[in-house]
Write a sequence for this structure.
């Protein structure tokens, strides 16, 4: 299918890459590395392979269903790998291994908390998501409520979470390319943004899914190999690894217990709430359940994804601890040759330094290419989720009242992708200095406060009304974003103020209960005729949620 207008957009984005060299200050010489030809070669091989997949996918993409959900033709096992690929992102490989390296036990708590939310998806949401939804999670929350107002809110909630999570991926990608190729950070971020545009604009969900599957397999294989090579240094004994890590780390035995990140009970509880329930509010994860043909395959998706993700998180924890000994005791990986100094290439690159230490430049090249593929695939999935919120929810349903042609909807989707790409690049540059695992924690907190309360109440509570959903969702979104802005992570680190107005790092302990409370109170107080019809329509929704069958009354409503 020939799309000259899209080619023009994409080439225009690629043409901006040289200009990005002047978008920010040069990276200090100490942070740049000699060109790694192995990494560059494998990087180019992967890019060419994924572009070939995109070309193939573009030939298969003939409708909005193909573009948004791969036509519902992905099997449970394939979708499980793709979901795992979405979840095993830059924050997992780079951020969590670095947290384990720096904080020990605290980093492991982060790792476990990221994983605990999957049973919630498995038992409460997967089947109903597939039976009730079509393209986006807004299809579910607006099933029996006011289509215009609920979809508008859901779209903005999705876009907020997508933009927050895009920051995580762009920071990880920029630091990775800066480390390996010697490029300035803004240039690296521009490269990621341009490739993302190609994957999403031309290939849609089909290309994104297969890129996710391939990179998930490579990441599982690469991470496992790295863990085995690292553990060989300790005779495959975790007790030996632990004792040597304690001897090597600057804070000694303190790495084996709760540290500064968990010292405050409020922060610890708030972080846990956000990480556990945030996954159920991530638009790009929820969108994956619409790519399978039925609810049975949706459940299988979560089953396989849980196994892959749980195994990989254990691998990442091992990598972080092994790096304490192997990387932390070697001055070549630190600025100025001092192990007490800053890591060359940034604090998120511990896994890459470990790969070089135990596998040499060839293995570093392979893992770097896979890590970059990880970021590209996740960024593409996020962009697709954000673009679908704009085109399907806002344009086709709210603005055009369901009367937009597929051609117009696809055109808006691709224009929205370009806009999201520009936003992602700008945010990636702004948040360069933040640890990506910490950023993803904040993102999960916003998702847990905004999307999750409305979604779970729409699926399970008969008393929900449009007013309740809107007021509760907006309360969660505004309070979460306000608290994040006023927190030390943004108010002090990013905006440069001396002291944070909100002293805690995570908002979920306040914003998520607030969202639920407002939903319940406002819905209970709503005595309108419309509220009565919305509550009565729950029975039809319940039948469809359980069986996938039901009348079109609620949707028409």
């Amino acid at each position: 299918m020939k799309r000259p207008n899209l080619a023009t957009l994409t080439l225009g984005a690629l043409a901006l890459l040289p200009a990005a060299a002047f978008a920010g200050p040069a990276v200090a010489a100490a942070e740049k590395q000699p060109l790694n030809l192995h990494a560059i070669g494998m990087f180019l091989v992967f890019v060419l392979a994924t572009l070939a997949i995109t070309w193939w996918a573009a030939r298969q993409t003939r409708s909005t269903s193909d573009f948004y959900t791969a036509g519902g033709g992905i099997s449970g096992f394939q979708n499980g790998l793709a979901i795992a690929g979405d979840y095993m992102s830059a924050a997992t490989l780079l951020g969590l291994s670095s947290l384990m390296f720096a904080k020990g036990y605290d980093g492991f708590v982060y790792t476990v908390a990221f994983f605990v939310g999957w049973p919630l998806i498995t038992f409460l949401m997967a089947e109903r998501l597939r039976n009730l939804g079509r393209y986006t999670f807004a299809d579910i929350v607006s099933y029996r409520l006011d289509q215009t107002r609920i979809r508008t809110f859901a779209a903005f909630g999705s876009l907020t979470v997508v933009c927050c999570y895009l920051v995580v991926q762009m920071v990880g990608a920029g630091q990775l390319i800066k480390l390996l190729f010697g490029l300035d950070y803004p240039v690296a971020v521009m490269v990621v943004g341009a490739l993302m545009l190609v994957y999403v604009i031309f290939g849609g969900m089909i290309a994104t899914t297969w890129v996710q599957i391939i990179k998930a397999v490579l990441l599982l294989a690469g991470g496992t190999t790295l863990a085995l090579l690292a553990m060989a240094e300790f005779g495959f004994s975790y007790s030996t690894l632990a004792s040597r890590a304690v001897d090597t780390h600057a804070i000694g035995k303190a790495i084996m217990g709760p540290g500064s990140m968990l010292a405050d009970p409020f922060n610890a509880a708030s972080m846990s709430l956000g990480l556990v329930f945030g996954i159920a509010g991530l638009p790009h994860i929820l969108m994956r359940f619409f790519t399978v043909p039925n609810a049975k395959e949706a459940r299988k998706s979560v089953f396989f994804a849980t196994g892959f993700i749980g195994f990989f998180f254990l691998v990442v924890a091992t990598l972080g601890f092994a790096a304490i000994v192997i990387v932390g005791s070697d001055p070549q990986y630190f600025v100025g040759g001092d192990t007490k100094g800053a890591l060359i290439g940034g604090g998120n690159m511990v896994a890459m330094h470990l790969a070089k230490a135990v596998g040499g430049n060839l293995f570093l090249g392979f893992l770097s290419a896979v890590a970059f593929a990880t970021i590209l695939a996740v960024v593409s999935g996020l962009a697709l989720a954000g673009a679908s919120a704009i085109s399907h929810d806002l344009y086709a349903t709210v603005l055009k009242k369901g009367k937009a042609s597929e051609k117009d909807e696809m055109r808006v989707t691709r224009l929205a992708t370009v806009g999201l790409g520009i936003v992602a690049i700008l945010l990636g540059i702004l948040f360069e200095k933040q640890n990506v695992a910490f950023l993803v924690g904040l993102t999960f907190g916003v998702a847990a406060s905004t999307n999750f309360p409305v979604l779970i109440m729409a699926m399970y509570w008969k008393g929900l009304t449009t007013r309740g959903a809107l007021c509760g969702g907006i309360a969660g979104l505004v309070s979460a974003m306000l608290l994040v802005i006023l927190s030390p992570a943004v108010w002090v680190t990013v905006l440069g103020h001396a002291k944070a107005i909100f002293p805690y790092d995570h908002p979920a302990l306040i914003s998520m209960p607030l969202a639920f409370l407002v939903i319940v109170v406002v819905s209970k107080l709503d005595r309108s005729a419309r509220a009565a019809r919305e509550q009565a329509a729950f029975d039809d929704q319940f039948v469809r949620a359980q069986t996938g069958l039901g009348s079109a009354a609620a949707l028409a409503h």
About this structure: The chain has two domains: 41-430, 449-557. The chain has 24 helices and no strands. The radius of gyration is 23 Å.
